[in-house]
Amino acid sequence: xxxMPVDSPRSSVFTFQSAVHSDHVLRCLDEQRRRDLxxxxxxxxxxxxxxxxxxxxxSCSDYxxxxxxxxxxxxxxxxxxxxxxxxxxxxxxxxxxTTKLLFTKENILEIRNSASVLGFxxxxxxxxxxxxxxxxxxxxxxxxxxxxxxxxxxxxxxxENKTFASTTDSEADTNxxxxxxxxxxxxxxxxxxxxxxxxxxxxxxxxxxMDTQTDYSLLCKYRKFQxxxxxxxxxxxxxxxxxxxxxxCVPCTSxxxxxxxxxxxxxxxVPVTEGCDFLTSGSSKPPLSPGAKASSCGEMxxxxxxxxxxxxxxxxEDEAKDISEANNGVGIVSEDEEKVVLRExxxxxxxxxxxxxxxxxxxxxxxGERSTIEQEVAExxxxxxxxxxxxxxxxxxxxxxxxxxxxxxxxxxEDCPFLRDxxxxxxxxxxxxxxxxxxxxxxxxxxxxxxEDSDSLDTxxxxxxxxxxxxxxxxxxxxxxxxxxRNDFQQMLKLQSLTRExxxxxxxxxxxxxxxxxxxxxxxxxxxxIHNLECEIEKLRTEKDKLTSERDxxxxxxxxxWQSFSGLYERVCSEAALRPEQLQVLAKYSPSACPLFALxxxxxxxxxxPEATLEAQDPASACSLGLFQAGSCGEPSSRxxxxxxxxxxQATPRALTAECPPSASTFSGKxxxxxxxxxGLGAFTSMRPEPVSKLITDK
DNA sequence: GGACGCTGTCATCTT
DNA sequence: ATAAGATGACAGCGT
Length: 699
Fold this sequence. Notes:
Elements: H1 21-35, E1 41-45, E2 48-52, H2 54-60, H3 62-71, E3 77-79, H4 86-98, E4 100-104, H5 108-118, H6 124-136, H7 169-172, H8 176-196, H9 221-233, H10 263-266, H11 277-280, H12 290-301, H13 311-326, E5 328-336, E6 339-346, H14 372-386, H15 400-415, H16 424-427, H17 460-472, H18 478-483, H19 486-495, H20 500-576, H21 580-588, H22 596-608, H23 614-628, H24 636-642, H25 653-659, H26 662-665, H27 668-675, H28 681-687, H29 690-698
Parallel strand pairs: 1-3
Antiparallel strand pairs: 1-2, 4-6, 5-6
The chain binds a DNA duplex (15 and 15 nucleotides) through residues 154, 156, 218-221, 455, 459-461, 486, 511-512, 514-523, 525-526.
């Protein structure tokens, strides 16, 4: 958009933004493409060639962007992968130049596939995800798309949520495409949810080791706990974030974006006030009304795995996002029975007047009977369209009550170019689930998913609010009140001349809404923390098992080495027929760990080693019994647990009794005395293998 | 009808 | 000093 800073005596900067410039540019580019003017690339698909401009393609498609950047100037002709068909590519090319995607039931799959391969932006979520199932899964419950089950921790699946999995009779005779689509949609939903949710979002129950981006910095007491864990855990927990969040093992419950880490799974909508900042601060775009900001932001941020109960809402909110980003609306009009034009069009400030007279397509099809699919599609898109709040320009001087009436009447039926055409379907006004609450028909309310557990905004308190709001004649929605930043909120209040009572009421509503959201966050953090701790416990348990088995292995190895060593000494001594004096001399020059010491123990304990008391001597035999007779002790490790005092084992009585059965534990007391007797001779005497003892005894 | 879980709200404390 | 957020406690509601 052209900005035209104009110097003024006071150095003020003005901004002019054309609402038609981008349209014009695109139109010119399309014209050039049609006339093959300034086209710098030929795209070959199957046997067909398409002339185009690289920047246009690159700006719309990741694929082209990558290709062009890698090819440089050389690639004047590029061939697309086999997966891309001409039938699928041509509408995409047209979309790139016109923002309109022409498709039919017959070619939408081709288009979707091509778009997927080419990485065409702004189509998947906004178009295919909703449309394809409508085309190919058009059952009664088609609108009830499955909730992302893996993100529902405990809620039992509801029957209607199984639409995709279940195959109705009407579906039974559908072609393979149907199942393919259903499958793909599941993937899409999942992918979409992942994208829209916090990237960390994942299944709760299957991810003990998955990372999380839960922002524990927002935890208060939990953060302290996490920090304590960090400190206590040492290097193992070094992967924790600064906030004390262990990245190695964390709750896999959803965590939203950095700001709104918290809301994703547990709440239905998350107004992120801060998210509106980019709209409000120094924007060069035409100022949006507070309502627009609120709605946009609320809907933008209102996505979560759990929240996005179906592609419908995802799409709507995605559209809202697009709307908020580009100030565009989404319109859909019918061309003929099976043909639909999905169009993103400029959503000028006067959205209510956006009947797009320049588009003959938008005119009602006289007598044209729409298919159910089409009706649903149109209704869906209309919802997205009207989820955009009324600009403030439409209600400046209108009395609040009149304004509300206006909302209820005008918007829903008359002014919406899509619903107007829908007949009975149109009568099901978006956001008007509760007939008694006319205010809920206000486009300020973004509760899109009618019916089952739509706890987004249709809470008791909100319903109460609407009643009270009507009583107070407040032109606000809860969402708007709660999602606005403080400044915006204050500004909005200033714009409205409210009575004291009204002001109190609005503040109260805002406070409660904020608190409600905070409570959700808080609870979610608790759950995350619990989950995190469970993961930690599991991890430590695994670690312990690993270390235990390693210890056993090493002990076993040590026992074998000792036995082998002892055997060798025994052989040497017996073959050499050494006398005890000779043995002592030999031992004198042997390392202390040498099993030879064991051969000397009786002598040393009685004469040479006065400190080796009877208690130590007795235990020696006791230990040897315990060690080498008590096979009942079971494992080698338990045997060597006894000799902990001789080396690094550090066996404790508790360990002994724990590891040895009662029969062997009768020795434990003395064994322990023996093993703790000393680190030298006593210890080794306690360990001498029976053959050695026997040898010495014999001698 | 009670147990349980979920959610909103309030009061209070912390940031 | 004030607003916003966090959290414990409680109550209402649905299952």
